[in-house]
Design a protein that fits this description.
endopeptidase fold (from Nostoc punctiforme), alpha+beta
Length: 155
């Protein structure tokens, strides 16, 4: 399996194509460069635990409908990462955002959920995401792309 990106350190933590492949074509955003400079809004301990769980899945394969432990799809990775903190989310890239509060893009912090039609990713901070991308790449950490919307579980 080829690597899409190498992990990046932040101040607190080290952080067959499918419907999730839609994230390949999204664009960079200048506001993400702010995060890349270490200026993300502060994340909670819970947020970092979600990121660390997702980070530990990097390198695993992609499988449609997968919720681990050996493979994930995009919503399965998000669902399981947040489940480690007791947050129950549905297993669907459309159902997850429907149950959560939207976060303005300039206010995203590590652990938030990035959404595009048919795809989800976890923001890892410092301008990076962790996502179950596709069957070719599997679960990867890569430079963040501009999401359509962002969401945060309550609490």
């Amino acid at each position: 399996m080829r690597s899409v990106a190498r992990p990046v350190a932040t101040g607190f933590a080290i952080l067959f194509l499918s419907g999730c492949v839609s994230a390949r074509a999204v664009q960079r955003s200048p506001w993400l460069d702010i995060g890349a400079k270490g200026n993300d809004p502060p994340a909670t301990w819970r947020d970092w635990q979600v990121v660390l769980y997702a980070r530990s899945q990097v390198g695993k394969r992609y499988c449609w409908g997968g919720v681990g432990p050996s493979c994930f799809d995009c919503s399965g990775l998000v669902k399981e990462a947040w489940a480690t903190m007791g947050v129950r989310l549905p297993h669907s890239s459309d159902a997850i955002p429907a149950r959560l509060q939207e976060v303005p893009l300039p206010d995203v912090r590590p652990g938030d959920i990035f959404w595009w039609p048919g795809h989800l990713a976890l923001y890892a901070g410092a301008g990076w995401t962790i996502e179950a991308l596709d069957a070719r790449d599997g679960v990867v950490m890569r430079r963040a792309r501009l999401p359509r919307r962002a969401f945060r579980p309550p609490g």
